[in-house]
Design goal:
The complex is a heterodimer of chains A (about 300) and B (about 300).
Chain A (H helix, E strand, L loop, with lengths): L8 H8 L6 H10 L1 H18 L1 H4 L31 H36 L2 H15 L3 H12 L3 H27 L3 H8 L4 H37 L11 H8 L8 H28 L6
Helix pairs in contact in A: 2-12, 3-5, 3-12, 5-6, 5-8, 5-10, 6-8, 7-8, 8-10, 9-10, 10-11, 10-12, 11-12
Chain B lengths: L1 H28 L4 H6 L5 H10 L6 H13 L13 H36 L4 H15 L2 H15 L11 H31 L2 H8 L4 H39 L4 H10 L3 H29 L7
Helix pairs in contact in B: 1-12, 5-6, 5-8, 5-10, 5-12, 6-8, 7-8, 7-10, 8-10, 10-11, 10-12, 11-12
Classes of the chains: A mainly alpha (about 300), B mainly alpha (about 300).
């Protein structure tokens, strides 16, 4: 056997399709990355604590006690109490049940809308693709926070509007990403081979192109979740998202800022919750990207 | 070069048209009757009809849009519903305040970000690299408004080094600039590290070292210059995002900028102000991106323009 010639089907496959790692390789690379594993653990911990919030923090997050306002952390109140005597630990843990679903729904909606549009723009080209890309350029012309503010001011202040805002500013990201992937993949040999055997465009897109573009989509979704969580809490901080007395992290920061001088704990713990959650998703996304393409240096 | 500028300006036109349409439609997409919103909920039907006629809302949509664009091209963004002053007169001084804050934040983010990125790349996999990478990671994960609140607690309330809020001299600018620049600093640091590692691995760097060039000169003159293109892209993108994200920093530090003014306008349902603010900020973002594109040729002479 000549040197350098792949001698197994798997090796020939890997050489034919360089850059598309196998699942076991991906998992191995991912688990070797300590930061990625830490991100997974952080993310899982936050999601689990949101799901199990009534068990972890059984105290009613709306229950007030005006005799115990602005108390620091104690064994009875692990994160202290706020200006109305409400338990901050309970409110922080329950806050995950507000912030996370709003962020996830927004990102999911963006993915469901953006991926098909990106597929269309990348595979078909032509006038339709131009229109899609010009609309994308218009949306990308607005800074994301500003766009979110403009949308919530137009559609009305509510958590559902925040999800819509997240979806709208995230859609162009998916369109551009998927289009770039499809442009890269559509001239590959396996796509040509599929065309040669008479595969329809629909089969090529959904059976061959989309599965190979899934990696970058998942990576981007993780990073978009981080951005979405920051956006949800930012809008609530500005009074354009969750309204009092809802225990949303950003809203808690807005409530607590007036008492920072005497009771800094009312702003420390909600902010830490946001930071830890966002950090987890960023580490997860970075880890997935490094596992998918180790040549991409952070 | 001029052909390139012309080409880029031509591609700007559809984007600017799209932005103006999106901003124009903001008022019309709002649930409810915009004329009633402007006239007030207690207004009589006659008053609402009068407002509708004054604002041109009884015209077909396309005529309203062309009227809006026509007035925009003459610098007329309408009048504030609350103050009745011209929108541009209300927005302009606040826009300048936001630009001042954004420029200061960019200076912080580019200066610190480049330093962190270069230091990390030069000492790859060292304790310093790991520590600086953690700093960069925390920078992209920390909510800016929370960072601002923590800086106020530490440096204004406890140490009393800086004022808590407001706009004034340099002392008033420090904490808001650090707050606003932290996220961009982290992004610039990460991109600088990645780009420098790419360049430092090239063969010509070995040649330069073999010729005995000092490390500092090698890094700045030979490595950084070639690593700058992707870094410039990121800096340009972040400059625009800083402009939009300044609203949070302005809220925390009571900085009298355009972002905070727009949030107040949203609460007061003062749509001309919101429309004008969004349009001004979006236009600046688009122009910054154009400027970044034009800077490429200054950084890399290999980019030839027909």
């Amino acid at each position: 056997m000549a040197a350098g010639v792949p001698h197994t089907a798997a090796a020939r496959s890997a050489e034919a399709f360089p850059g598309i790692p196998r699942r076991r390789t991906l998992l191995r690379r991912y688990l070797r990355n300590r930061a990625a594993v830490a991100g997974t653990i952080l993310t899982a911990a936050v999601v689990l604590s949101a799901l199990l919030a009534p068990t972890i923090a059984p105290t009613d997050p709306f229950s007030q006690s005006l005799s115990t306002t602005l108390r620091g952390p104690t064994p009875a109140h692990w994160f202290g109490t706020d200006s109305l005597g409400r338990d901050v630990f309970s409110r922080v843990v329950r806050g995950g049940r507000i912030t996370l679903p709003v962020a996830f729904v927004g990102v999911l909606a963006a993915m469901i809308t953006g991926v098909p549009l990106g597929l269309l723009a990348g595979y078909r080209g032509g006038v339709g693709a131009s229109v899609i890309m010009r609309l994308t350029d218009v949306l990308l012309a607005f800074p994301s926070t500003l766009l979110a503010i403009a949308i919530t001011s137009t559609l009305g202040v509510a958590l559902t509007t925040v999800s819509v805002a997240i979806a709208i500013f995230s859609v162009p990201i998916y369109i551009r990403l998927v289009r770039a992937e499809i442009l890269r993949l559509r001239e590959r040999e396996f796509v040509m081979a599929a065309r040669c055997v008479g595969a329809t465009d629909r089969l090529i897109i959904f059976r061959h192109l989309l599965p190979n573009a899934l990696g970058p989509i998942i990576i981007q979704s993780s990073l978009n979740c981080a951005l979405a969580i920051l956006t949800v809490s930012a809008l609530s901080f500005l009074g354009l998202g969750a309204q009092p007395p809802v225990p949303e992290w950003g809203a808690m920061l807005a409530d607590g800022r007036g008492y920072m001088r005497v009771a800094p704990h009312v702003v420390v713990f909600p902010g830490l919750a946001i930071m830890i959650t966002v950090l987890g998703f960023n580490l997860l996304g970075d880890g997935l990207r490094d596992a998918y393409d180790p040549r991409s240096t952070r | 070069m001029s052909a390139y500028i012309q080409g880029r300006l031509v591609t700007l036109v559809p984007v600017l048209i799209g932005v103006s349409i999106a901003v124009f439609l903001m008022l019309h997409l709002t649930p409810g009757d915009p004329a009633r919103m402007v006239a007030g909920m207690d207004a009589t039907p006659e008053q609402v009809d009068r407002v509708r006629h004054l604002l041109g809302l009884d015209q077909p949509l396309y005529r309203q849009y062309f009227g809006y664009v026509g007035r925009l091209l003459q610098g007329d963004m309408g009048r504030s519903i609350i103050t009745h002053d011209r929108v541009i007169d209300d927005l302009w001084p606040r826009y300048q305040a936001t630009v001042e804050l954004t420029v200061a934040a960019m200076a912080v983010s580019v200066g610190v970000g480049l330093f962190i990125g270069i230091a990390s790349a030069v000492r790859q996999y060292s304790v310093l690299d790991n520590a600086l990478s953690v700093v960069a990671l925390v920078g992209i994960s920390i909510p800016a408004y929370w960072l601002g609140l923590m800086l106020i607690v530490a440096f204004s309330l406890r140490l009393r080094w800086f004022p808590v809020a407001g706009m004034g001299g340099l002392a008033h600018l420090v904490l808001p600039a650090v707050t606003l620049g932290a996220f961009a600093m982290a992004i610039v640091a990460r991109m600088t590290r990645a780009s420098m590692l790419d360049v430092l691995g090239q063969d010509y760097i070995q040649t330069v070292r073999a010729k005995g060039v000092r490390e500092g000169r090698l890094l700045i003159r030979h490595a950084l210059k070639n690593a700058l293109i992707p870094i410039l892209t990121v800096i340009g993108l972040q400059a625009g995002q800083l402009l939009g994200g300044a609203v949070l920093t302005e809220s925390v530090f009571a900085w009298p900028g355009i972002g905070r003014f727009m949030v107040d306008a949203i609460q007061a349902r003062d749509f001309p102000i919101v429309q004008g603010g969004v349009l001004l900020t979006a236009l600046t973002f688009v122009l910054i991106n154009l400027l970044v594109d034009l800077l490429y040729s200054a950084v890399d002479p290999r980019i030839k323009y027909a």
